[in-house]
Inverse folding.
């Protein structure tokens, strides 16, 4: 069950980045952030922090030293939008429709530890908040995860 309260999405995403920063630094990733102010959502901050954290952990696991992770928060009409994009190896476009399936791991994931539930949890949490999550990649370089949540007026 969700305990929804008004949440400053930029602040929440910034906190999630701070919580994962040590791992990203240890992996030698470059981080950029553009967090628009005053983007508010009605959300359970703990669950939303978990969803963003899962995406940041995945970026840390799959990117190579020197890759960039760009985190943005913005508003698009009635939607609050979070994008976590990286310059890592990308996801094969054939695998994209399944990345949010529970316990599914791509064929290129044999060398990276994980259980295959992180992205499924992200989808469940974002959907429970009335939002959507999508993944995009050309399969050669980079992956972007886009979360869209109903914005507060």
């Amino acid at each position: 069950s969700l305990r929804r309260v008004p949440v400053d999405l930029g602040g929440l995403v910034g906190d999630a980045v701070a919580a994962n920063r040590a791992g990203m630094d240890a992996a030698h990733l470059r981080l950029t952030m553009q967090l628009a102010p005053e983007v508010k959502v009605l959300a359970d901050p703990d669950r939303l922090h978990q969803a963003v954290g899962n995406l940041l952990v995945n970026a840390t696991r799959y990117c190579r030293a020197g890759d960039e992770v760009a985190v943005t928060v913005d508003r698009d009409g009635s939607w609050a939008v979070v994008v976590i994009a990286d310059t890592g190896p990308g996801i094969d476009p054939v695998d994209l429709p399944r990345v949010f399936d529970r316990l599914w791991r791509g064929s290129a994931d044999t060398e990276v530890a994980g259980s295959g539930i992180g992205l499924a949890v992200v989808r469940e949490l974002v959907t429970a908040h009335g939002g959507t999550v999508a993944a995009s990649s050309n399969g050669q370089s980079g992956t972007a995860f886009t979360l869209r949540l109903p914005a507060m007026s």
